[in-house]
Design a protein that fits this description.
Blueprint: H1 37-45, E1 49-50, H2 53-59, E2 62-71, E3 77-90, E4 93-102, E5 107-111, E6 119-122, E7 125-127, E8 132-137, E9 140-144, E10 150-159, E11 196-204, E12 208-216, H3 222-228, E13 237-238, E14 244-248, E15 253-256, E16 270-278, E17 281-286, E18 299-305, E19 308-315, E20 332-337, H4 339-348
Antiparallel strand pairs: 1-10, 2-3, 3-4, 4-5, 4-8, 6-7, 6-12, 8-9, 9-10, 10-11, 11-20, 12-19, 13-14, 14-15, 15-16, 16-17, 17-18, 18-19
Length: 358
């Protein structure tokens, strides 16, 4: 979903409840015992009630703001809103839209919500997702994109009337997981009456391979690529965490080295990789080394397609922990708002009165 712009793996799956209004209610409520795995996490992590997402999204869109942080003339950091996204269900189809405020026309302008850079492995080739058909599964919804790619979405809702804006986002302390509303030029007071926040989790029903980054290369196969960057060569790859690495082809291991220009040294020295042929495509899959502070591990992959090196993530279905097995898989998390709540944020997000949604 486009609105998952703060999407992160859930590193601590069963956090203490966030506190807040314990008396909130919604039209459709389910007990935790009958809830999906994702909904159980959301119910444990937030003071909220489970909702029937098909009913909610078919009745009204949910809104998610895009907060930008910049420095003013005095060098002080300030945050403002320049865009919002919506999700809804229309004619049993999942609709995603984006809008950017035009300061000249003083109107919200619709943007293309199609992601032209993200690729998914389907039918033996890499392609883009179209619109998803929606079916209900209890209180959850299933998004069916065809080509054997399906996601399940669960949600909970919280009445945030009179709740401080800093208390509704992805963590209790609002650290590193959402917009810093405290940086608004005019501090936003508590949400007005009728405001609601929706905590939405999304996970694939089957293992899904998604690439969001690609670079043109001259290699025709993963074997050529790994040989070029093997430990027997002088070539090294720079990863996103600034730790150069090479491949030990014999031991099927990625070997890291410290970047001499980076102040932070690399903690991992090596990690295993494996080569898999999936849907007629060869993938090199790396699993980061597990640490005590990171119980959730997301696998990364590389592939060669049409002269491009694809880098992506392996999304596996989310499973709750039990007495013998740790939580596994993937789900992304986002906070959505109803119109009353998003208008409150737009009002204090550096936008004129004309930006209020009607």
């Amino acid at each position: 979903m486009q609105m998952m712009k703060y999407a992160t793996p859930i590193l601590a799956l069963l956090l203490a409840a966030c506190g807040g209004d314990e008396g909130n209610t919604d039209a459709v409520v389910a007990t935790p015992s009958t809830s999906s795995s994702i909904a159980q996490v959301l119910l444990n992590q937030y003071s909220s009630n489970e909702v029937n997402l098909n009913t909610v999204l078919a009745t009204e869109p949910l809104y998610s703001e895009s907060v930008q942080t910049s420095s003013n003339a005095n060098g002080k950091q300030e945050a403002s809103i320049e865009r919002y996204d919506t999700i809804s269900i229309q004619n049993k189809t999942f609709i995603e839209e984006q809008f950017r405020f035009n300061s000249i026309s003083q109107q919200w302008m619709s943007l293309l919500a199609n992601d032209s850079t993200t690729l998914y492995l389907m039918d033996g080739q890499w392609g883009h997702l179209g619109q998803a058909k929606v079916t209900s599964k209890g209180n959850d919804i299933i998004l069916d994109y065809g080509n054997d790619i399906q996601y399940i979405i669960s949600g909970t809702s919280r009445d945030i009337s009179n709740v401080a804006v800093m208390d509704v986002n992805l963590s209790k302390n609002n650290n590193q997981t959402g917009p810093d509303y405290s940086l608004f030029k005019t501090p936003a007071p508590a949400f007005p009456a009728g405001s609601k926040a929706y905590y939405i989790g999304k996970s694939p029903l089957k293992t899904t391979y998604r690439s969001r980054y690609s670079n043109a290369v001259n290699f025709k196969s993963i074997d050529e690529w790994t040989a070029f960057y093997s430990i027997n060569s002088k070539n090294t790859l720079d990863s996103s965490n600034l730790c150069p690495f090479q491949f030990d082809l014999t031991r099927k291991t990625v070997v890291f080295s410290n970047n001499p220009y980076a102040s932070q040294k690399c903690t991992a020295k090596e990690q295993p990789y494996e080569l898999r042929t999936i849907k007629q495509q060869q993938l090199l899959i790396m699993t980061p080394n597990q640490t005590e502070n990171n119980s959730f591990i997301r696998k990364e992959f590389y592939a060669i397609s049409n002269g491009n090196l694809l880098e992506g993530e392996v999304q596996e279905p989310f499973e709750l922990a039990n007495g013998t097995v740790s939580a596994s898989g993937f789900f992304s998390l986002e906070v959505g708002f109803n119109k009353t709540a998003i208008n409150h944020l737009l009002k204090h997000g550096g936008l004129p009165a004309s930006a209020q949604l009607r």
